[in-house]
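Aim 2 progress update. The chain analyzed this quarter is reproduced below.
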Amino acid sequence: MVIGLALAGAVLWLKPQGLWLAATLAVSQFLIWMLVARNYALAVIFITAAAIIMASGGHAVENIAGLLWARAVDIIIGCTIGIDVLLVTTPRVVAVTVPQELAAALRAAQDLLKFVATGDVVSTGAKRARRNLRHRAIVLLTAYEIGAGARQHSDFAEALWPAVVAAQRLLYRLYAFCWRLEEVGSNGAANVARAAFGANGQASLKAAIEDLSNAITLGGNVAISSDVPDFL
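Predicted structure tokens:
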């Protein structure tokens, strides 16, 4: 932002008018849109400069130093407020997001389970559940990375890393089983699923996932039944 202030000061000192002013703003807008998605730090330079130039209304500024100083004070105040809000809210975000995403990932596994256990992996509902499972796996890892990158409050997220890994392993093993059923074909998928889950596998796995979800949100330990399918 300091570089942006210097750039704005240089442009205002040159006092561009008419087409030159329009061209200057057009170039600034072009650079902003080219950079903002790739490198926001660089884009901020041109965002700051363009904002100050547009605020001048195309008129010559008599006290450029005073204008830049006032803008610098605004930036300092805004950054201070932003940092304070981040420090206050980050512990809450980290503490809530990772457990919530763990529970959501297990719910996605449970939604897919009711299709997989019967050998159905190609119906509209099954495909929707498979897509949701992939999405939850990605979101879970993203939530952990955000939490672990929160510096002062990373310990909480890092302590949950084994649970994140275990949940992702569960999701991807279940997803891989979907591919196995799809390769077998609709005629043999039901038999393969029945053999994999056994008599009580589906009920045991459903109960285990429910218990794990409750343990994540409410606390406590879970004893997993030995009837859970071997591939999981």
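The chain has a mean pLDDT of 80. The chain is about 80% helix and 0% strand. These observations will guide the mutagenesis experiments scheduled for the next reporting period.
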